[in-house]
Every structure is written in C-alpha cells, then in structure tokens.
C-alpha cells in the first residue's frame, strides 16, 4: 500500500499574503515566505517588544510563544505560524494590567539595560507553566537559552521564584 503525501500549495518566492493571529488579533501582511516571525512582527506589524539580538537563535532576546510554546522568533518563519496563536511581550498584559511576571521583574529589579527583558519574561512565564521552576538549578537550566549581558541572573531567578511562590 503506497502512502499519499499531502501537498501544500507552493508559495513564493515573491511576497505573499500571510495571516497571523498575534495576541488574539488576526492580522494580514504581504511578506516573502523567507521572512522570520521576528521580522514580520517588528517590521511589518510594528510590534517592537520582541528584540533582535543575535539573529542566530543563540541569545533568546526574541523569545515569544507560538501556541503557548517558547520559540525563537528569529529562527521561526512567519508563514509557518499561519493558523497558530502567536503571543508577544505586548500580549502578556491584560487591560493595561501587567502580567505577574512583568510585575515581578520590576519589583525584583530583574533587568539593567532592558534589552533582553522581553525574551527573559516570555521564557520565565513559560517556564512556570511548564513546571520547570522547582529550584534555582532547574530555573537556571530552563532559562539557559536566554542571555543577559548585564548579568541580572540572580534578580531574574528572584522574580521567577516570587511568581512561583505567589509573593
């Protein structure tokens, strides 16, 4: 019995209409299929909270969520996110009220220059949902993909513990 492969329609190489659901709002953009999710968000949808650090997937500054899972926006194609829910740092606050992790980062002074902060917060909030915040060693391991050049790591872990412990 021969398996039949589903064939996706060919798109590209020129600009294509791509519809993304970002922070609960459906938005369409005309982009080339090779455009990263990060570039689509920043350059086409003007959501500049997610930062472009290394553009190689090594620093974590562009961490955001697709269907609630952490992804690196610089390594994810925007076109691959059609039909999926994309959440950015702008989508964490509800009705102008900061998310608990955003509040904890402020309270614990968990940032210095602030460049890595959006990715750190997105990763930290996901880490708690994933159940990977048992102790500092586990937090350190599961946050290891997010680099802070200012070395605010003790404060970042304190913010995660504060949200974990409900303080």
Low-confidence stretches: none
Strand order of the biggest β-sheet: 2-1-5-3-4
Q: Terminal Cα separation, in Å?
A: 59 Å
Globally, the shape reads: elongated
Helix/strand order, N-terminal first: EEHEEEHHHH
**If helices are DSSP runs of H or I spanning 4 or more residues, what is the number of helices?**
5
Q: Estimate the strand proportion.
A: 5-15%
Number of strands: 5
Largest beta-sheet characterization? 5 strands, mixed
What structural class should be given to the helix and strand makeup? Answer: alpha+beta
How much helix is in the residues?
A: 25-40%
Radius of gyration: 17 Å
Mean pLDDT, to the nearest integer, reads 94
Task: Write out key terms for the chains shown.
alpha+beta; 5 helices; 15% strand
Structure at a glance:
By secondary structure, the chain is α+β, with helices and mostly antiparallel strands. 30% of the residues lie in helices and 15% in strands.
Give an account of the 3D structure:
This protein is α+β, with helices and mostly antiparallel strands and 167 residues long. It is built from five helices and five strands, in the order ββαβββαααα. It has helices at residues 37-44, 100-107, 117-130, 136-142, 153-165, and strands at residues 16-22, 25-31, 63-66, 69-72, 85-87. The protein is elongated, with a radius of gyration of 17 Å.
Helix-strand blueprint:
Layout: E1 16-22, E2 25-31, H1 37-44, E3 63-66, E4 69-72, E5 85-87, H2 100-107, H3 117-130, H4 136-142, H5 153-165
Parallel strand pairs: 1-5
Antiparallel strand pairs: 1-2, 3-4, 3-5
